[in-house]
Specification:
- The chain is an alpha/beta fold and about 400 residues long.
- The chain folds into two domains: about 170 residues, Alpha-Beta Complex (Spore Coat Polysaccharide Biosynthesis Protein SpsA, Chain A), CATH 3.90.550; about 190 residues, Vaccinia Virus protein VP39 (Rossmann fold, 3-Layer(aba) Sandwich).
- Helix content is about 35%, strand content about 20%.
- The strands form four sheets. It has a seven-stranded mixed β-sheet. The chain has a four-stranded mixed β-sheet with strand order 2-1-3-6. A three-stranded mixed β-sheet has the order 4-9-8.
- The N and C termini lie far apart (about 60 Å).
């Protein structure tokens, strides 16, 4: 056999991750995928499951090229990895060279941080790289580090002068699940995913296997929100003005620890209303259009049904039901008139925690002179004596001071 893919999964969470990662790999690469588990650990007597990497060519004696990937990865886009068969170069991706732990470990190995690879994704050839695996295993006795295998593999590569073919970071996109921009990502690597509840893990993979993932590149507003939640554990938020639920699905899929309130009336707008006369296209929709949008929003977020609450009601009415100081962000994208945005701000501002984000879409739109988002935002920013920020996709953000 010329080429297979392999991952390791030992323990309940990692067994699940390995199974889901392997499924994504088969779907996106078409390659046969194997999982090494607890039985292999016992058979080889290794001290840690990661050390099974050193045994890859022992375990699969008839295979010439192996694509190894850690269990906490997901193959996002189709790619033909057979082009990397039987090459003398080690195929890998550089680790995060600006991080302290990478700098320290690269120094331990004696190489620049930019030449230090992440061992969660490797393509190895039996003829050229089996000696490197053996040398890395031997180094376990003398080269100590916090890493289970990465230090030794990097050191062995340097000592044996194994050439490297560096792939772009999109082939091993580190911290994929923490609001990094997903454009072009082939393989996402999700450190810490094993700390998530089992159902959150399942739904995260379900999201990225779902066709809903095809539109993620359009959602600059989603990236702008997620960047501000990067350090927030188990965030809770609300989206006001959901329509078909694309942003909600993106946020819930990108953050498997996110809880989200999805608020929209999904009701036809009276033609003589202020909102209908603002020039926005949404009020032109018929009730049948709103009904379809509602059904789509529910369907595309079903993978996170235990973390999202869909509320078909007016914004102000819903806000009264939510406890104050309970949300990490509120994203306003409903009635874009000055009065509409002002009222939404007044209704939802008290719901934010200290340090939370008041934010929204369509800060300014010269082609819609009757919109008043900018005026309402600047007014509340001045009232609170707080700055506002602009970001991608015409978004705006105001951070509530921490207590």
């Amino acid at each position: 056999m010329s080429m297979i893919t392999v991952t390791i999964g030992v323990g309940e969470k990692y067994e699940l991750l390995a199974k889901l990662a392997a499924e994504s790999c088969r779907r996106r690469t078409g390659l046969e995928t194997r999982i090494l588990g607890a039985e292999a650990v016992q058979r080889y007597g290794v001290a840690h499951p990661h050390h099974l990497k050193f045994k890859l060519f022992d375990e699969f004696p008839d295979v010439e090229t192996i694509l190894y990937f850690d269990a906490d990865t997901i193959f996002v886009k189709p790619f033909d990895f057979r082009q990397f068969e039987n090459l003398p170069e080690l195929i890998c991706v550089a680790d995060l060279a600006d991080k302290g732990w990478v700098i320290q470990d690269a120094r331990r190995v004696g190489i620049p941080p930019a030449e230090y690879f992440n061992s969660g994704f490797l393509i190895l050839n039996r003829t050229h790289h089996r000696p490197m695996l053996a040398e890395a295993e031997a180094l376990l006795a003398t080269l100590k580090s916090p890493f289970k295998d990465q230090t030794q593999l990097n050191a062995a590569r340097v000592q044996l002068r194994i050439p490297v073919r560096w792939l772009p970071k999109e082939f091993n996109f580190l911290d994929f699940h923490h609001c990094k921009k997903p454009d072009g990502v082939v393989v996402g690597h999700m450190h810490g995913m094993a700390n998530q509840p089992v159902e959150s893990i399942r739904r995260f993979y379900q999201f990225w296997a779902n066709p809903v993932g095809t539109f993620v590149n359009e959602l600059g507003r989603g990236d702008a929100i997620l960047r501000r939640l990067a350090s927030c554990q188990a965030p809770a938020g609300a989206e006001i003005g959901v329509l078909a639920g694309r942003l909600s699905a993106y946020l819930l899929g990108a953050r498997p620890d996110l809880s989200l309130i999805m608020v929209d009336a999904w009701t036809a707008v009276p033609p003589d209303s202020r909102y209908a006369q603002s020039g926005d296209t949404v009020p032109r929709l018929k009730q049948s259009d709103f009904d379809r949008a509602y059904a789509t929003a529910v369907a595309t977020t079903t993978f996170a049904s235990d973390r999202r609450m869909v509320v078909r009601a007016l914004s102000a009415v819903t806000a009264r039901r939510i406890a104050n100081h309970n949300l990490d962000f509120v994203f306003l994208d409903a009635d874009h008139t000055y009065e509409g945005v002002r009222d939404d701000i007044e209704a939802w501002l008290p719901k934010l925690k200290p340090g939370g984000w008041l934010c929204g879409h369509d800060f300014e739109f010269p082609g819609r002179p009757r919109w008043g988002v900018r005026k309402a935002v600047e007014e509340i920013a001045a009232k609170l004596a707080l700055p506002y920020e602009r970001d991608r996709d015409n978004t705006w953000f105001i951070r509530i001071p921490s207590a």
